[in-house]
Amino acid sequence: MNTVAHAMEPSPAGIGEGDARDYERIARAIEYLWHHAAAQPDLAAVARHVHLSEHHFQRLFTRWAGVSPKRFLQYLTVEHAKSRLGQTLNLLTLTADVGLSGPGRLHDLFVTLEGMSPGEMRTGGAGLILRFGIHSSPFGPCLIAVSPRGICALHFVEHQASPLALLRRDWPHATLEPDAAGTARLARRIFDPLAARRPQPLALLVSGTNFQIQVWRALLRLPFGSVASYRTIAEELGRPSAARAVGNAIGANPIAWLIPCHRVIRAGGTFGPYRWGESRKAALLGWEAAQIGAHTCE
Questions:
Q1: pTM for the predicted model, two decimal places
Q2: Of residues 22, 33, 99, 24, the one with CA closest to residue 63
Q3: 293: in domain
Q4: Residues 161-194: pLDDT tens digits?
Q5: Spatial distance between the Cα atoms of 166 and 90, rounded to a whole number of angstroms
């Protein structure tokens, strides 16, 4: 049976209200830019769409992305995505001229991944205590859950979603204990790695098939700011015909951002689906590209 330390659902009230509203506006703006890219909407059009003045919107967006909305739009085009795919020669050797040898590594986190044993998977987390909390992030509210052996879940959540339901689905027999103070420290390390003077490795604990874990390990080798196709991942695993299976494994990824499934796009340059929403995937990819671009233009 499910074990929960407290019957009440955690309240998103711990999320910074200003941060949450800011990301909601950013997300609406990115979705608008994405769907109207061919028309090259100007600043006034996007600002009207999110019900802000041009000045306020420009300042808000630039604070979030590090670049202007016009520059950000360039990172959402199929042409730009194709060029980034072409620069990813393989998962381990990337050309230095895209900036990944310098600014990309500034943002990289050292992550280790451990898979549950088949026996542990069958028990559904019985005997395991998972501490969890909901926190703001640059990409919206997120649920973080951690076990004594490492982070076991990171989900971007919508306000109407039930965070506990996400954990119960993957860990039906684990004990769930709210611990927003403890997971807040993790959230800061995850989303602001540059703030840590001596960043410590982050351990992940996942429950998945052998193939899924192989795919997730391959994703960990994708540097910040890079992209790869589903076929490239399949080829890296020695299974070039398994692109569809790779896609299924990516869709089952339980740890957003840290296992960077958002960096896998279609060979034609379109972003493709994302477990936590296609607009959020565009935000993640555009934000990473903007950080690389901002550093390489200095």
A1: 0.86
A2: 22
A3: no
A4: 677 888 998 899 999 999 999 999 999 989 876 6
A5: 34
